[in-house]
Amino acid sequence: MNGQKIRVGITHGDINGIGYEIILKTFADNRILDCCTPIIYGSSRIASYYRKLLPAIENFSMNNINAATEAHPKRINMLNCITEEIRVEPSKPTVEAGMAALRSLEAAVTDLKAGKIDVLVTSPFNKHCIQSDKFNFPGHTEYLAAAFNAKDPLMLLIGNELKVGIATGHAPLSKVSGYLTSENILTKLQLLNDALIADFNIRRPRIAVLGLNPHAGDNGLLGKEEEEIISPAITEANKKNILAFGPYPADGFFGTASYLRFDAVLAMYHDQGLVPFKTLAFNEGVNYTAGMPYIRTSPAHGVGYDIVGSDKASPDSFRAAIYAACDIFNNRKAFKQLTANPLKTVDTDKL
Predict the structure, then answer these.
(1) Local structure of 158: helix, strand or coil
(2) Are 205 and 193 in contact (CB under 8 A)?
């Protein structure tokens, strides 16, 4: 990098949601330019439309570019990838908005793979509206896994005091039990452990594993997944020098703040992990896709149709996603340098 600031590619998400509002509010404070060079994959026309809805933001300007290589390191750069007139209909889920979200995502992913940007921060989109012959996935995580040939990525929610990985991702609740195997849980534990070390600079991470059933099965009375699937996975993880513990009943675990004794938590299904996470860390929360060769983060909230245009959308989670992407980039870089040049062990008896 030779001292170059981190180039952050930003997708605009659903153009009828709060994506542009949180982007504009984040970069209204240009101090964030001290740590990164932002490149927004979107539309200057749509940005101007939402700018007029936010009277509190003054003297806001963007540097319009045609390619990421033209980005100015001290400006907010807008790469116009939506060239035609697309109707903006705040708060409405439309096919056109889904198309615009996909166009932005495709352009940013192409540049990330080409090394024209360093990290990717995605604004939320409507998962229903974006479905097409080019996008047939339940969310960003699965789309990016396919784009980057990542076999088994991990959805990881990160906050100041809590990190939660989801063992089964966006799986429907009715299919969660069928997706859980000792092998799959062990894979997720390995991904989580590796991410905590390389991406978050935690030397010996401690991971809590939640049970699937009420009271973690209550010794088989309320389900046998803990005894037959989850506990064996934890045992195998320990053999691989992964400090995994549990399985813990989810309600008591969060109710007693036991998560504070661990560096991360592996939940068995989506809402088991995200409900307590968003309750405890909604404004600061960041969604990170671990286990991929490229870095992608996003705010831990959705399109916010109910508050579009009301100036109520908080940029805190989005801003945290940008800082998290930059921190992870720097941590990975330092980890690679450390592992490439490990300190040699010195035999003090020979000194």
Answers:
(1) strand
(2) yes
